[in-house]
Amino acid sequence: MEKIKATLQELRDNLDEYNLKAVVFDGLDIFLGEICEQQMRADEHVDVSGGLSQRFWKKRNDYYFQTLNLLFDIDVDKYFITHYAPKRRNDKTGDLDDDRYESKLNNLLVFACQKSTPDKMHQIVEFTDNTKITKGVKQVELVATIISDRRSLDSHMTPIIFAKTGEDGKVKWTGQSILERK
Q1: Could you read off the pLDDT of 69-100 as tens digits, one per residue?
Q2: Phi, psi at residue 85, to the nearest 5°?
Q3: DSSP-assigned letter for residue 55
Q4: Whole-number Å distance between alpha carbons of 13 and 17
Q5: What are phi and psi of 86, to 5 degrees?
Q6: Cα-flanking dihedrals φ and ψ of residue 135, to 5°?
Q7: How many helical (H) and strand (E) elements, i.e. helices and strands, does the chain have?
Q8: How far is residue 78 CA from its own chain's centroid?
Q9: Strand blocks (E) in the chain
């Protein structure tokens, strides 16, 4: 955790030296669910199998938001990649897991402390691949759907195909059209 924070502080404080244009944080869900939780458990001397009170989860969430805020302080483009978990039920009660909430994105669940994460983003894009077999040929479309965009209300819920395979099986990239959109 300290290495991550130190790296982000170094980037923020020496931006010109690194000629940095963007930061990509891949695995925001893993960062919260594993790294922040491991740090919290280590700090509180709690075994992985041990139960936790609410105050411990608050500490995990604090690690998460402190790191996000460091990222937001870096004056470059930022891209966050996360994966939402499928719905999960408590084996004993059958209820939805209390630490997750239902997201607008495909009826999936995210950790409760991530509820406010999308509010910090300028644009939320969901990526899917649509695969089908036509006449014995596998065809794939890679689709980006703009879930929300603070800069352009017109693009809300707009699906954009940025790559697809043709009937000949060759990939056609159409991503340039995304960059040229106004």
Answers
A1: 999 999 998 888 877 655 555 556 666 544 44
A2: -85, 145
A3: H
A4: 9
A5: -65, 160
A6: 55, 40
A7: 6, 8
A8: 12
A9: 22-26, 77-81, 100-102, 109-111, 123-134, 137-149, 158-165, 171-173
Residue linked to tokens 């509010």: 119
pLDDT, tens digit, for every residue of 57-77? 888 888 988 999 999 999 998
| Greatest alpha-carbon span in the chain | 59
Which residues, 6 or more positions from 163, have their beta carbon under 8 angstroms from its beta carbon?
Answer: 140, 141, 142, 171, 172, 173, 174, 175
Closest CA to 68 of 82, 55, 80: 80
Rounded Cα–Cα distance for residues 163 and 147 (Å): 19
HSE toward the beta carbon, residue 22, CA cutoff 13 A: 7
* Bridge partners, residue 77, by sequence: 22
pTM above 0.70, yes or no: no
**Residue 29: closest CA among 90, 89, 105, 95:** 105
Phi, psi of 133 (to 5 degrees): -115, 120
Q: How far is CA 40 from the centre of its chain?
A: 21
Measured CA angle at 98 (ends 94, 104), to 5 deg: 95
Tokens, residue 57: 């989860």
